């Protein structure tokens, strides 16, 4: 056997490499890489300073890990899509079971009854929360769920215009564009009220016409606002033959009216807050549901249903609708997703089961009260408008600083040095708001933490110029 130059790479010897090149009909490595431009090639051997032992590698990595700070180490007031909620230990234990981890996608449905039942429970709970007819067994994340919803609406209506709010999360908008541009969907944005942050219904109605496939709106909005006018949007859509897509926060439905009850045709959400911790930003859990058989036939992914065995005495679970390209002819598929987040869907089912309706309502109330408390404390800040919008808020709110350019980033850097994560700067994406920050409060943030945050913010603003 040829002598290798690296203990873990069998084909690292010149003899083996040359043999492999001969088999594929290539004379040299340079010829193999000829399609790679010269200016981006390394053109020298990698500098590898010897080989460390396993113990040395582990020690080095552990030292690197110590430089990381988690949500447990820092008080975080940062939300904007990924949220610091408490996930019960039982949820982690359940999704860690090998029965779920190794069979997260039920290709052989008849032998995956436990997994199918878990996904059926997930779908049923989200359906009850949202008051729609059906929910699929998950998508990648909330952004891709919105992209799929837009394409669903276009397939169902045959129209190619989708209207979205101006104050949509910029990252979510970017993903939506990735989903819609290749199939010719045109996006238009409607504005928000400068005083309340709620939807500008006059602007929306001026854009809503017979060529509109759907209108997307969120409750709460990206700015954390709760506006009663949102419940009017589905009826406005239906008057023009358009569909209504509502984005929701799962925990907020512990206290807010379900979108299906005020006419939403499609509902979408990011389910990370009820399934997993922040985990450096992912993975997420895409939730999508709909009303009506026409839309049901267009929903991406899979639907799990419950039936009985042949003798009619035992329950049985099955995939009643599979619109993935892996299960049907490619040109007939509603989506080209090749996997999903079923494991986190199971986590969400476990989370909702543990809390129950009362627990979810109590959690919603806790976050609402803490949001109001944080707003009250931060209203004492010098030369700042808290909240920027005069309305009710849930979990998030905008703080506008009446200071020189750059103050938002400067404050966030100083907060980080003090062991706190500040809010998301809105300066680049929403310049009309000036120096502003989107702050987030969840059940994790204690009253003492909010007091400390308020005190430090006051000190920083008084000391800044």
Task: Record the SSE blueprint.
Elements: H1 14-23, H2 29-32, H3 54-65, E1 75-76, H4 89-95, H5 98-101, H6 113-130, E2 134-135, H7 142-157, E3 161-165, H8 170-180, E4 186-190, H9 201-207, E5 212-219, E6 225-226, H10 233-239, E7 243-248, E8 266-270, E9 286-290, H11 293-296, E10 302-308, E11 315-322, H12 342-378, E12 384-385, E13 392-393, E14 396-401, H13 407-417, E15 420-421, E16 424-425, E17 436-440, H14 447-463
Parallel strand pairs: 1-15, 3-4, 3-5, 5-7, 7-8
Antiparallel strand pairs: 2-9, 6-13, 8-9, 10-11, 12-14, 14-17, 16-17
Helix pairs in contact: 4-12, 6-12, 7-8, 12-14
Characterization of the model:
It is a single chain. The protein has 465 residues and is an alpha/beta fold. It folds into two domains: 75-84 and 356-463, Aspartate Aminotransferase, domain 1 (Alpha-Beta Complex), CATH 3.90.1150.10; 89-352, Aspartate Aminotransferase, domain 2. Helices cover 35% and strands 16% of the residues. The protein is built from 14 helices and 17 strands. The chain has a seven-stranded mixed beta sheet with strand order 2-9-8-7-5-3-4, with helices on both faces. Helix 4 packs antiparallel against helix 12, helix 6 runs parallel beside helix 12 (342-378) and helix 7 packs across helix 8 (170-180). The longest helix is centred in the last third of the chain and has 37 residues, at 342-378. The radius of gyration is 26 Å and the shape is globular. The model has no long low-confidence stretch (mean pLDDT 90).
Strand content: 15-25%
What is the number of beta strands?
17
Classified in CATH, the superfamily of the largest domain is Type I PLP-dependent aspartate aminotransferase-like (Major domain)
Tally of helical segments? 14
Largest sheet: 7 strands, mixed
CATH fold naming of the largest domain? Aspartate Aminotransferase, domain 2
Q: How many domain regions?
A: 2
The assigned CATH architecture of the largest domain is 3-Layer(aba) Sandwich
Compute the average pLDDT.
90
Low-pLDDT ranges: none
What is Rg?
Answer: 26 Å
Judged by helices, strands and strand pairing, the structural class is alpha/beta
Shape: globular
Helix content: 25-40%
Amino- and carboxy-terminal Cα gap:
71 Å
**Can you tell me the CATH class of the largest domain?**
Alpha Beta
Order of neighbouring strands in the sheet with most strands: 2-9-8-7-5-3-4
């Amino acid at each position: 056997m040829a002598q290798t130059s690296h203990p873990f790479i069998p084909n690292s010897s010149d003899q083996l490499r040359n043999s492999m090149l001969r088999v594929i009909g290539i004379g040299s490595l340079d010829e193999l890489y000829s399609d790679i431009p010269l200016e981006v090639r390394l053109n020298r051997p990698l500098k590898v300073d010897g080989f460390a032992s396993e113990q040395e590698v582990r020690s080095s990595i552990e030292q690197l890990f110590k430089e990381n700070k988690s949500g447990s180490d820092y008080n975080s007031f940062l939300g904007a899509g990924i949220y610091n909620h408490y996930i019960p230990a039982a949820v982690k234990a359940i999704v860690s079971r090998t029965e779920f981890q190794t069979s997260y996608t039920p290709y052989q449905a008849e032998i995956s009854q436990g997994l199918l039942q878990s996904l059926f429970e997930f779908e049923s709970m989200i359906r009850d929360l949202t008051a729609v007819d059906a929910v699929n067994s998950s998508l990648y994340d909330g952004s891709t769920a919105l992209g799929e919803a837009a394409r669903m609406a276009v397939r169902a209506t045959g129209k190619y215009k989708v209207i979205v709010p101006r104050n949509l999360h910029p990252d979510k908008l970017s993903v939506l564009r990735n989903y819609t541009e290749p199939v010719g969907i045109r996006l238009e944005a409607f504005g928000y009220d400068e005083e309340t942050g709620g939807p500008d219904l006059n602007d929306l109605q001026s854009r809503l016409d017979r060529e509109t496939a759907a209108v997307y709106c969120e409750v709460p909005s990206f700015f954390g606002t709760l506006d009663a006018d949102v419940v009017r949007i589905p009826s406005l859509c239906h008057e023009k033959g358009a569909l209504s897509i509502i984005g929701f926060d799962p925990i907020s439905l512990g206290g807010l009216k379900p979108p299906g009850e005020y006419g939403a045709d499609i509902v979408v959400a990011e389910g990370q807050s009820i399934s997993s911790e922040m985990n450096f930003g992912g993975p997420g859990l895409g939730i999508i549901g709909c009303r009506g058989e026409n839309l049901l036939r267009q929903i991406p992914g899979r639907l799990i249903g419950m039936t009985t065995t042949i003798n009619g005495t035992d329950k049985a679970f099955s995939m009643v609708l599979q619109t993935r390209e892996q299960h049907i002819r490619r040109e007939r598929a509603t989506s080209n997703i090749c996997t999903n987040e079923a494991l986190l869907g199971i986590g969400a089912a476990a989370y909702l089961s543990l809390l129950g309706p009362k627990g979810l309502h109590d959690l919603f109330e806790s976050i609402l009260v803490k949001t109001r408390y944080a707003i009250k404390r931060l209203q004492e800040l010098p030369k700042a408008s808290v909240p920027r919008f005069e309305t009710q808020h849930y979990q998030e709110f905008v703080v506008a600083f009446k200071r020189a350019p750059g103050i938002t980033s400067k404050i966030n850097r100083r907060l980080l040095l003090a062991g706190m994560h500040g809010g998301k700067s809105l300066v680049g994406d929403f310049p009309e708001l000036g120096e502003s920050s989107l702050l987030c409060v969840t059940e994790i943030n204690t009253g003492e933490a909010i007091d400390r945050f308020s005190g430090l913010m006051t000190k920083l603003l008084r000391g800044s110029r």
